[in-house]
Amino acid sequence: MEMDVGTKGAELNEMVDDYVPDSEVAFYVREALKSVSQGDGEYYNQLIEVISHRDKRTPDDEAMLVTTLRALSESVSSIDTIRHEELLFSIFQLSIWNHGPDVMDAFVELMICLAASSGKFINACLDTLVYNFSPPVFMLNFLKHPRGIVRKEQVLNRVHSALQDIATLVPLTPKMLESIICNRMPKITAPEAWIVIYVENLLRLENGELGEFVGTLAIKALVDRLVDLDVEIILDPNEETSSKGIFDIELEDIDENDDGAEKVGHEVSRGNLRRQNLDANDFTDKLDNLMVLTCEHLKSCASAGRLDEVFETLMVSFESTVMLALKSKFAQFVVFYACSLDPENCGVKFANRMADMFLDKSGIVEIRMVAVSYLASYLSRGRFLSASFVAKTLQRLVDWCFDYCQFREGEMKPTTYRTFYACCQAIMYVLCFRMGSMMDITHLKLQLFNMPLKHIFRHSWNPLQVCLPSIVEEFLCQAKAAGLLMVSEEFIFNDLLESDLSKAFGGQQRLDMFFPFDPCLLKKTDRFIRPNFTFWSMVKTTYADVGLDRIEVHDDEEEDEEEVTVGHIGTLEESSEEEADDLDMDDFGSSLNKMSITPRKDTLANGLPLARMPARIQPSTSPW
Q1: Do residues 77 and 30 touch, judged by C-beta distance below 8 A?
Q2: Is residue 591 classed exposed, middle or buried when 0-12, 13-18 and 19+ CB atoms within 10 A define those classes?
Q3: What are the tens digits of pLDDT across the range 510-561?
Q4: How many angstroms separate the most distant Cα atoms in the chain?
Q5: pLDDT digits (tens, 9 = 90+) for 5-50
Q6: How many CB atoms within 10 Å of residue 277?
């Protein structure tokens, strides 16, 4: 006698309640699957209802779902992609985050059986498992509680185990996972917790048995998402369009009081870009949290002795994504941190790779300029880099500049000789940070004095007039104090902090303002970067021990705070001992150690303004 749907549903319930063997339930499921082709879809519809049930499930409902999933695992050979399309849709839409361990186990077992039974189901099974990387949005708050944390581990342990089992049964699994991982990556507008959980799974894949096959893709997908978030962070428009010199006091020990107000541990100038200058949106927090996850992963890789292989993958993604990103400000610090974990290996590799890219004559000009900017910023800021290594790398740049212009003469052509000017600027920038330490080491001091800097900087192409004036000014001040380079009194800057020439060689996107490893403003990421980072206040300049002519503290009624300014440091050819005697070093000593010398209109005796010390140019922006 034919039974209605309710009767068949009751029959299935009775089978569950009476502990009917799974083999018998599987028989009924197979019969239901067969009945569809015979025009009888009632019991088949009941199967769909059991799986796609949307209301809150009772314990009996859960038991029925477990039994049905297990029965389907026994019947995968009877499942057809066309006749049972609706049933498959219900299965592949199931989120096991909503269920207990028994359902989870039965579900992943079904995924494994389907994937192994026919190539027709493999992609859908893998996609469903990756879909279960992230919980339903309504569960995000629940995952903050202890029970939620337990649920998260229960789900993800099973999902990753299932992926590994399928990979063992189906060798092509890793290749199929590539597009799925990218397609399932949450959009940057998704809830932060959702993105974070997905990235945790990517890193778990990279660190697991499948890492050998999908690790590269996981790292690439992560870096792509970091860049996507990075470029969405909008800076304070006033900072982006300002014409301040790049050598300003940097952001350092800033924390927050309980009321959220900033507490400044070191003086911070008005020209400094502070954290609150970042656009007030959630992209900053999302990027910060993902950067922390990435740094923690790199640290664990270093502890496990596998940082080198991960670094190679990271560099591939860095060169194809980060270096080409428009206005990349923070994503590049994952590479900086990786280098700091293994300076003698990864740290050296990165510098050499950037140098090789710049020195490659067949390379694209813009890429070469980006590479040398990264190299200069890295050599300047990497606290973990030895002075000897910095000097060795700097020598490569100096030798290239010397060879490039040795047999060429003519007028300045910023747009024609962009690589030359970019390299000159890189050399000066590094020396602003490293000249003092190199002068303290005898063989490095000798190496520095043997470099053909005079020939390069006095060449008819005149890089001192083309490169960013604030860098040139600081470089010349230190070079004069060290006795490294003398500049004739006829060389005088105009009073602009940015010249049309420096803009010209940088191109439309202003490469003259691109220093990618300026201080990282991401609050949580800072704890990874800070111990390995050289802030300007740490730099020993060559003029730190040289007497200054005079120091004036101006009380400007239009300003909110006092600003220490310096008159001048003698001439570039000789210092004035009489004026130096007037200097009260006790009043100035501590300020000199912690802040840059930032004059306004005061100049050196020959008309050359005293430099601003480097802090930030905005957060740095790429020339693209």
Answers
A1: no
A2: middle
A3: 444 568 998 998 999 999 999 999 998 899 898 886 654 322 333 333 333 3
A4: 118
A5: 344 444 555 544 555 566 677 778 888 888 887 777 788 888 888 8
A6: 20
Question: Do residues 405 and 459 lie in contact, with contact meaning Cβ atoms separated by under 8 Å?
Answer: yes
The whole-angstrom separation of Cα 297 and Cα 292 is 8
Which residues are CB-neighbours of 112 under 8 A, at least 6 positions away?
125, 162, 165, 166, 169
Of 235, 220, 213, 104, which Cα lies nearest the Cα of 167?
213
Global confidence as pTM: 0.78
DSSP 426-477: HHHHHHHHHHHHHHTSHHHHHHHHHS-HHHHHTSTT-HHHHS-HHHHHHHHH
Question: For residue 414, which of 516, 511, 514 has the smallest C-alpha distance?
Answer: 511
Is residue 622 scored above 70 in pLDDT? Answer: no
User: Residues 612, 554: contact at Cβ < 8 Å?
Assistant: no
For 314, other C-beta atoms within 10 Å of its C-beta total 26
SS3 552: strand
Q: Measured between alpha carbons, how far is residue 217 from residues 131, 478, 525 in Å?
A: 17, 46, 23
Question: Distance between alpha carbon 394 and the CA centroid of its chain, in Å?
Answer: 26
Q: Report how far residue 470's alpha carbon sits from residue 485's, in angstroms, rounded to the nearest whole number.
A: 17
**What distance lies between CA 219 and its chain's CA centroid?**
11
Mapped onto helix, strand or coil, the DSSP state of residue 523 is: coil
Place of tokens 């080198």: 308
Query: Which amino acid is located at 146 in the chain?
Result: P
Give which of 524, 130, 517, 134 is closest to 290, Cα–Cα: 524
Q: What is the total residue count of the chain?
A: 624
Token duo for residue 390: 């910095």
Residue 232: C-alpha distances to residues 227, 287, 377, 510 (Å): 9, 10, 23, 19
Distance of alpha carbon 490 from alpha carbon 573, whole angstroms: 12
- Token readout for 591 is 């300020």
DSSP 533: B
Structure tokens at 379: 């050599």
3-state secondary structure 271-294: CCCCHHHECCCHHHHHHHHHHHHH
Rounded Cα gap, residues 472 and 483, in angstroms: 16
Instruction: Please identify which residue in the block is written with the tokens 């010398």.
Output: 597
Whole-angstrom distance, CA of residue 242 vs CA of residue 271: 9
Please tell me the number of Cα atoms within 13 Å of 129 on its side-chain side.
32
Buried b (16+ CB within 10 A) or exposed e, 13-40: bebbeeeeeeeebbebbbebbeebeeee
E-assigned strand segments in 66-168: none
Q: Which two tokens stand for residue 370?
A: 């980006």
